[in-house]
What does this fold into?
Amino acid sequence: MKKSLVALAILAAAGVASAQSSVTLFGVVDVAYAHGSGSGAGSSSKSQLIKNGYNSSRLGFRGTEDLGGGMSASFWLEAGFAPDSGTGEASNTNNQNPSATALNAGDTQRLANNQGLTFNRRSTVSLASGLGELRLGRDYTPHFWNQTVFDPFGTNGVGTNQTLNSGLGGVTAVRASNSVGYFLPGNLGGFYGQFQAYMGENNKNGAVTEKDGSGSSIRLGWANGPVNVAIATSRTKFARTGAVAAVAATPGNVGAAAVAAGGGDVKSTNIGGSYDFGVAQLMALATRDRVDSATAVTGKGALIGGLVPLGAGQIRVAYSTYKTDTAAAPKSKKIALGYVHNLSKRTALYTTFARVTNSGGATQALNGATTAANNRSTGYDFGIKHSF
Amino acid sequence: MKKSLVALAILAAAGVASAQSSVTLFGVVDVAYAHGSGSGAGSSSKSQLIKNGYNSSRLGFRGTEDLGGGMSASFWLEAGFAPDSGTGEASNTNNQNPSATALNAGDTQRLANNQGLTFNRRSTVSLASGLGELRLGRDYTPHFWNQTVFDPFGTNGVGTNQTLNSGLGGVTAVRASNSVGYFLPGNLGGFYGQFQAYMGENNKNGAVTEKDGSGSSIRLGWANGPVNVAIATSRTKFARTGAVAAVAATPGNVGAAAVAAGGGDVKSTNIGGSYDFGVAQLMALATRDRVDSATAVTGKGALIGGLVPLGAGQIRVAYSTYKTDTAAAPKSKKIALGYVHNLSKRTALYTTFARVTNSGGATQALNGATTAANNRSTGYDFGIKHSF
Amino acid sequence: MKKSLVALAILAAAGVASAQSSVTLFGVVDVAYAHGSGSGAGSSSKSQLIKNGYNSSRLGFRGTEDLGGGMSASFWLEAGFAPDSGTGEASNTNNQNPSATALNAGDTQRLANNQGLTFNRRSTVSLASGLGELRLGRDYTPHFWNQTVFDPFGTNGVGTNQTLNSGLGGVTAVRASNSVGYFLPGNLGGFYGQFQAYMGENNKNGAVTEKDGSGSSIRLGWANGPVNVAIATSRTKFARTGAVAAVAATPGNVGAAAVAAGGGDVKSTNIGGSYDFGVAQLMALATRDRVDSATAVTGKGALIGGLVPLGAGQIRVAYSTYKTDTAAAPKSKKIALGYVHNLSKRTALYTTFARVTNSGGATQALNGATTAANNRSTGYDFGIKHSF
It folds into this structure.
């Protein structure tokens, strides 16, 4: 059958093709063998073929049109997917969690099996000029960027910043739908910044939940030579009624369930920096999440780490923590070490090892394992990343 | 991470590429800020980032193969999507509504969040010759075309023909799955036409509902110089048992719920025309929908409007109405005014203002607002459309 | 609107394009009119526009990167879809059936209408060298290949091998997710082979079901001149608890329901061969499926058939059977005859006729019809296949 698949070039429609009118097809396929193990009563281990141990798997389409006079229009459509099963990834249409109807195991499995491709990673149209860029659609939230730029593991895989696993940032911690964003132009002597407002799109009828899922975020930074520093802050509104959960259930943080039930605005602030010494690039990042539930909960994260070039490869190392101020003061600490070996600019082999240590009742575990409260969990992966 | 996305050309498989063997990738990204407001007791307003204020957002793949002797084969796969959230759009597999199992709010939200890309807009394979085109798959129904060709707002956005919002045309009002279509060739002196039959694909076992979702549609027209006129008619079969709802719930038309419960065949007929005076193109359109439920319901729609070129842009204006003959005689009237400013052939900025007025118990509202019976609703949008 | 879809070439990102760095976009659109009829009490017939009467409809992206030194990296992302409705196809994330929560008719229809595109057909990344290919992701299982290679109807359409319709092979009969595969290199004098291990990815916690969906498969063959022979065997693990059904419900085999309820490992073994006499290619295939439920069930399939070149076309003929050893010994026999007429290398018209005869309580029926136990069912199709 494969022989009958005559592969054909994507050719120009006659007379239309020109340098400034192009579509770029791009993507990443990243698959790894991953193992996780827990400890203590009721713990379990897991072996999997996982996605995204190093980079996020995706298929995308993007292009830019030169409008003349220094102006341009562009689009970016990027779909995440799981190469281990071929399924796509869900998006979120209103920056809110579905109300808490429990799904049975069969429905959860069907939902996973049937998940089609969406442009969940990014779906935007932009107008740009010397004054900056106006961007509309679904995009990363500004306060997310520090989490990935100043994490040696780039928010992917078993080694990533513990804030990504434990954080109280909720639905808009990474991306927001229905967003209007503005980006400063690139010629400000290393100074960069962006602002974003996003809408929950509820009917305005006087209900206390009418602003649920609406919010804004801002990020400002400065990069020059070996230095890069940035600060970001955001607020997403949620009523305290609990009708719509403000944050996703984050298993392993004792405070999470209480927060989820209570709702309330979510404020996230972070600051990060890196310095490239040549022999190594050092990184540090601090995060503060606050959920204004009836009894407010604050979560604090920190990371220090670095990237060390080594021939055709790179060593990655990080130590990160996250804790919340609920009664038991749950806390998780992670140490991670990894190596990436580049076979080419497009293809790399990698391996990562990480261990998380829990206290205060926390039950964070790695690579799908489960661990008892206050116990450790260990995870590792071996993978391949191929981009096109 | 973005830097690692090495964008690569889609190159010809050696020796296979030729002028008549090409695939074209195409699309539209259209996003707008939209606001709608209602009036009267219990009304609500809404602010959103919406899709498709001017053109429908889509990603498509199409191509034509020259078979020699005047014959050709072609395919067209076109997926609609929502750029504000990156989600895809559902299709319909049997031209029937799902039976009326109410979904809870959580499941409705999950369904929206998880909606993947489908080729819901068009999914066809064709054989063409000097005798016309035979087309198989999912396609627009013939009687839909007059609704968009003779509407200055092209069935998109807040200004569109009120028949699109209120109409009783049901599942096949725009497209049908499982269709076989025939198109007249293009060399008939301006005369054009198409016929389509589509199947509901139920098991034939003597049940009264065995033909539900099956039907046919025909459109004939004539275009010459400034003149374009066309007429179309269709019939989609549904038993009167109510087991399968004949028409979607159309909130705002008092008759709709009764019709949906009763089932019965749906017949839609329309006639439209336009004349291009140069300074303006005038359009008019009349529609008649009849649902053969136990107590038959007839809906009638009308539109008059026009397009006025203005420099690099275009003014769009329309007045449209829809009413049904149920007891209270619900009726909605809409007036709409818009302007499109083309930044290039591919990119445009646009704005639209519309107001709908209800009587006879109708509750039609614009841009996601809700309005009390017999009250007005106002909506507007500002948007950008970019095609590739 | 279509006119505004400016079709643009996919151009090289400057300086990146080179002969060994390409992405190929490919696909098939295959649609047919199909009719099936049953006989006996309660039987029903069906007329449909179906997908995949000759080849499987798909849209795919693939490419290979030369890494130097005889090594290469490649990816393959291939999404199946239904051109009659534009919907995608579901994948399976853990090689297990969803637990048996019955869906109501409305939810089943919604699931079908909303099914987005997934890379269900294949989603892999590979590293290859002179020593063979290592392939990770979702792929065909090795033991599937004999079913399609030695079936004149290639596992598509009404004429296909009865084992495909009746078989007890379960979720991994065609493909597996979470797989690691190894392929022998191509220079072994006609000898070929592949091995695959796949994971069910359950938590390892001592539960009897912790290995459900994990398994392995191997295929070895020899092709030289007119001869091609191959043997394959596989085992997928399932506990006998019935918590996770080992095989999908296969209506028409009396033994299937009992097997599904009981669970237990699924072992499938098959052997096939073909010889090309020039005037015709003959094929034969034998299959044995065994489900280790509390009372084990064995299913046996057999096929003999051939392909006869005829001008620009090909005649296809096959006789196939499947039976299980449950009490009543249900058995289904199918005779099928088809003709494919190639309009070009990419486009073909085809027609197929098939009849299935049941005994021992079997109720197998063709093209969506239903038939009474021990009765016959007849089906035919007329279709068009277009590849790009």
